[in-house]
From TrEMBL:
The keyword Methyltransferase applies. GO terms for molecular function: tRNA (adenine(22)-N1)-methyltransferase activity. Signal peptide: none annotated. One of its GO terms (biological process) is methylation. Keywords: Methyltransferase, Transferase. The keyword Kinase does not apply. This is SAM-dependent methyltransferase. It comes from the Bacteria. Pfam families: TrmK. InterPro entries: SAM-dependent_MTases_sf, TrmK.
């Protein structure tokens, strides 16, 4: 992967960035995402935020190599602290992290969201935690996607601020309000694997002298829920 050839997951996230956006890419690593968007004339201004020194230096090098110093600005900072008021950021991307970590990044510096930027988030686990945060903070999920790359499954959640909080059911939070209604192969694979993992855990617990009845019941209920959602997707 490089600036000109994004990975499948980053290319999918990039496709949701609006034309002319002022972008902050948090956890930017080599700054491939903002650099690609600048080279393709999607954005004219971007911040590449990175909290780890090595990836930050990679971003600096990439920006210099592509002569993007006047368009993409690397910032060595923790999470949303990479964003400054003068940036006038209207779009934030956070890709390739766990949902809990993404949620914590958003929650830690909520003041940076006072202008209600568009959020393009790509959790590799824990997407339900992220949806709960979005619901609690008046963000409406407008798009969702799910894909597999290098044996990992990534979800993409695009959300914009709304005056009224969205009403999500427990199934919406768990599976995704859009994903569960439009089930693709990656969605099916993710949840079929989850059923298999739960079944193995149930089998092991049932062999115990004193099986943890509460946990067993929880896993059985979860598998029933998953099977029900998958069946609805096929009907």
């Amino acid at each position: 992967m490089d600036t000109y050839h994004l990975s499948k997951r980053l290319a999918k996230a990039a496709a949701y960035v609006p034309q002319g956006a002022r972008l902050a890419d948090i956890g930017s690593d080599h700054a491939y995402l903002p650099a690609n968007l600048a080279i393709n004339h999607i954005i004219d201004y971007g911040v590449a935020g990175e909290v780890v020194k090595g990836p930050y230096e990679n971003a600096v090098h990439e920006i210099q190599r592509e002569h993007l110093e006047g368009k993409i600005f690397p910032r060595f900072a923790d999470g949303l602290k990479a964003i400054e008021d003068d940036d006038q950021i209207d779009t934030i991307t956070i890709c390739g992290m766990g949902g809990t970590l993404i949620r914590n990044i958003l929650e830690k510096d909520k003041s940076k969201l006072q202008n209600h930027p568009l959020l393009i988030l790509q959790p590799n686990v824990g997407s339900n935690v992220l949806r709960q945060w979005l619901q609690a903070n008046h963000y409406q999920i407008t798009h969702e996607d799910i894909l597999e790359e290098d044996d990992h499954i990534y979800e993409i959640i695009v959300a914009k601020y709304a005056n009224q909080p969205m009403q999500l059911s427990s199934e919406d939070l768990f599976f995704g309000p859009i994903l569960r209604k439009h089930q693709n192969n990656a969605f099916l694979k993710k949840w079929e694997k989850e059923i298999e993992k739960n079944e193995k855990a149930i089998h092991q617990m049932q062999k115990a002298t004193n099986p943890p009845t509460q946990r067993l019941a929880q896993l059985k209920t979860e598998n029933e829920l998953i099977r029900g959602v998958l069946a609805n997707g096929k009907s």
